[in-house]
Every structure is written in structure tokens, then in C-alpha cells.
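Reopening this one. Same input as before:
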Amino acid sequence: MPESKIHFFPNEPLVALLGNPNCGKTALFNLLTGSRQKVANYSGVTVERKEGLLSLSSGKQIRILDLPGAYSLYPRSLDERVTCNVLLGRAEGEKRPDLVICVLSAMNLRRNLRLVLAAKRLGLPCIVVLNMLDIAKRQGLQIDTAALSRQLGLPVLTSIGIQTDGADEIKHFLSNLDWRNLSAYQTGSSDATLENAASHIAHTESDNVQVQKILQTLNLDQIIPDHLSDRLDSVLLHPVFGPMILVALLFFIFQAVFSWATLPMDLIKAGVELLGGQIAEIMPNTWLRSLLINGILAGLGGVIIFLPQILILFFFILLLEESGYLPRAAFLLDRVMGSVGLSGRSFIPLLSSFACAIPGIMATRSISNARDRLVTILIAPMMTCSARLPVYALLISAFIPEKKLWGSIDLQGLVLFSLYLAGILGAMAIAWILKHFTSTQFRMNALMMELPSYHLPRLGNLAMSLWQRAEIFLRRVGGIILFMTLVLWVLSSFPLPPEGATGSAIEYSFAGMLGKLLAHIFSPIGFNWEISIALVPGMAAREVVVSSLATVYALSTSSADAAEALIPLISSSWPLATALSLLAWFVFAPQCLSTIAAVKRETGGWKIPVIMVSYLFGLAYLASFVTYHTAVALGLG
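Same output, byte for byte:
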């Protein structure tokens, strides 16, 4: 979420939301603060900091801080360490919270209560919010909040984070709170510190006994089974059928990326062609018309046309996440990932990298093992991010015919699935190699993660998330992609060719000179000078490769509709071997400069980014070389 332009006053009370992952804390934060949020990073670390502003009915404004999810206040991961530092007042530039709201999932009191007991020992004023009460009631759980409050010695409120009025009780409580006297909600020592490991273990054992006593008092000491989730898991987590279902599901998603996107892509293409024709009719043949048609329209139109495919891919990823299936996928893949030296905990960061490697790399903070975290960072850029999708879609559309195999399987979707699979297999191979290089330090950690109950995704949340993804994509189109397209148009248009020159004007431009220089490096893998030009701005953002090719070919031909005819242009001028080589290049080549910068921030220096970029470029060149020369030997050159 982009940072909103809201002024937050440091003297306003600061309320921190504390809770386990998957307790509904962030949904509650969104409900309390709405759009009045700002997102930044904590000072000195790359952990995301989310703060919002809540206006109470009393007229008072308070700051709400959404702390990173934590299972314990004895930190094992970077996220948990940041949460502990904030609660102890040790976070640089961060005020110690005036009040802590401990958010509990009504479905997981046994685990969630341990965090409340740990928070009480810190001496901060605390209240408890029992969230997801609606789900608990549907499962037959009746929780006596008054009895729970007596047992904890703290106020216990209730909330339903997914309903518009689900936080009304919290707002009412905060409106009537005497902010000058919070000692009634304070236990423990105000100067409490994190204990050493031995003391932490002793507290954990005593907390377990206290938690068991509370649950017995509330008649909740027996685990209430979730029959629906259990029945689904008996199939979806089956050792044989589970992996088969997962592979079939992923295969279906990639089929849908092509087959479902055909109509909206055709509409966008028709709109771009219509606009280009209108401009060509009303404007004289000047440099300005060339800029609009061959520069801006060719570049941006060539990228926007792939927006439907990106949104379809994100729709399915969000659907799996909202339904509760993603942690199951991590569980299914734990054994496979263990064979290459990782655990299933690396799955979600790697899956996030299919959207963008940057949040995927940031998500590795939840991995407590430093070696596993580093390896996951190194292989995350090999996951096929959404920025690669326009390049894949362009080349597949140009060289792979639209036809069905075995009745209903789309050939283009099958090729796309194969490219994603190639990236995954390449990443697993690198992880396997690193496993053996780091064998003396390698320790396999058992996978411990929560499997939340299945639930139907909320269409409103899906729509909002898709809209945010579309906004991010369009901002990139209107930002870095537009800027790089304009720069490339200038470099491709000047200087003008000398009198009597033969060939296209772009060959005499700065870009043409650079492309022909780079072609000496890339010609062994089948790249021509037009491709060589496009690879340079493509380091800023992968999608720029498509807009760059559109601009280069629009300036290389005298055809009036060249801006809208990129696919037939490259399909008629490139051999299939070149297209296959370029696909192989993008499977392994490093992603954008922003990804490299993110790795530098997460690892604290340039050593790991340099290693990552070097081995990825080497892999990309090797894969392209083998692919190109194999294709030529088969008569595809």
C-alpha cells in the first residue's frame, strides 16, 4: 500500500496491535484506520512499519501501530525481534506504546494466550481483543469473555475484523478510556527486559500450565475439531492425491492466464490501434507524431495489453491465500524442499516472488534459520515474476500457435507453465548445490506452521487487492516504463542519418550504435541488435523490454501500423531459435535493479547481491547458448 499523505502527531497516544500470525490483526488494523495509513520501514531494518490514525467519537485521535506477527517475545526471526524492540522501547526513532491491544484468535486460544501472558510481564498497559468470534460460534465454541477477563486480570473485548461494524466495541472502549491513568491495565515491571534463553524456557513451561488452567476454567480444554477443514485436508494433504491436486491446480492457473485473457487483450489492442490511427490522421508527419505513435503509444500500448494476464494470475494467488490453501501447499512441498536443503517455510516467500521478487525477498524475514533465509533470498529472483509475463506472452503469442492439445489443453498455456516450471527447477538445483557447499553448517529445521481453517474468500477483499495490483502496474507504466520509453525514443531517433544513407534511420542513432556494439556479445546466443538494445533499459523493469522492442521496431519500419504490429514483426523477422534463446535468457537473468537493491538492504552489504547477479547472468547466458545452438542443430534457426 502506498504511503498516504497524513500528518501524524507524535504526542498522540500510541496503541500497538500485538498478536500471532493469522489472528486477524491486520484486518482489524484496516478496520480501525481505513485509508488513514502510512507504510514505511523501521529505522535500520527493512521490516515494514504500518501505522494508522483512528478518530474517536470523543474527538480524540490516537495512533494505531500494527506490529509484525509474533509467536513469542523471545525472538527467533527478524519480525519478532522488531516487535520485541518496539514493546521494550528499544526501536530507534519509535516511541514505546502507551497501550497494547493483544489480539487473540477465538479459534486458537491455546497458542494465542501464551503471547498475552508474555506481554503482561513487560509492564505495559494491556487489553485483550477476542477476534474471529463469528467463526468460533459456527464451530460450536462458546467463550465466556467475562470469565476470561477475570482469569487474565485484563479487559476482554470482542471483534469481527471482516465486518464493517466489527470494531465498534473497541472504538467505544478507547473513546471512554482515561488516557492519563492507564495503570489499571498494567501488570508486571515497567522496566522489564527480554530474559535469557533459560529464563524464557522456564516462563514458557509456567505459561503452558497457566494457559491449561484458563482453558479448563472456560471449559475449552478439549480441542473442538473443525470438521470441514479436516475433511478437506484428508484429500488436499493426502501424500499421493495432495501433490497431484496442487500440480493440477497450478497447471489450470497457467492455462487460464492465456485462455481467459484473450477477449480483454483484444479489446485493449483494438483501442491502441484506434488511437494510433486517429493520431496519424490528424497530425502531420513530424517528430512529435513519431514521439506519440512510435515512442509513447508503441511503448506503453505494448505493455498495457498484458494487464489482463497479470490480473488473472494475481486473482488465483489471492484466491488461494484467502481460502487458507497456501499454508497447505507449503506443507505439501516441505519434503520436496527438504531434499534440496530448505524447509516448507521457504515456500511462501518463493511463491510471493511470482508476483514480485521484492516482497518475496522481504518475506524471508519469517525464516529463523539464517542459512535457509540466505539461500531463499539467492533463489527468489529465479521465480518468474509478473514483470516477466509480458515478455513471455509476447514471444509465445508470436511463435507458439494457438491450438488445443488432447481436447482442451491450450498449447500456449502449456508452454507458459513449462517456463514457470523451468524457473522453479533451476532454483531447486541451485539450492541443492548450496546445500552441499554449506553442509558443515547445514541444520534441517522441522517445519512448524499454522494451518488456518478454510473459509470462502471475500469478494470485496479480492477486488480491492486486484485494484491495488492494477494501480501498481499502471503506475509503473506511467512512471519508469514511460520514462525509459521516452529515453529510448530519443536515443533511437538521434542523430539523424547522413545524406544518402541506406537502411533504417535507427541504425545510425545512438541506440543503434549501442545495439550493434552489444550484438558482438550476444550474437553467440542468437540475439540481434534490436534485442540487445531492449535488454539495457529492461534492467530498470522487465516490462520495459516489450515497450523497448515496440519502439525500436516502430522506428525501424515505415509501416504506419508498426506500433500495433509487434507480434507479426518479430515472428516474421526472428528465427524460432532466437525466440527460444530469449525465453531461456529470461528464465534465469537477474530481475530489475530494485530487486538487487532489496537484496542489498536485506543482507546488509554488496557481497550477496554481486554473487547473485554474477551467477544469474552466467546461468542465463549458458542456458541461452545451449538452447540456441540446440535449436539451430534441429533446423529451427
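So the earlier flakiness isn't reproducible anymore. For the record, Residues 577 and 637 are 5 Å apart (CA to CA).
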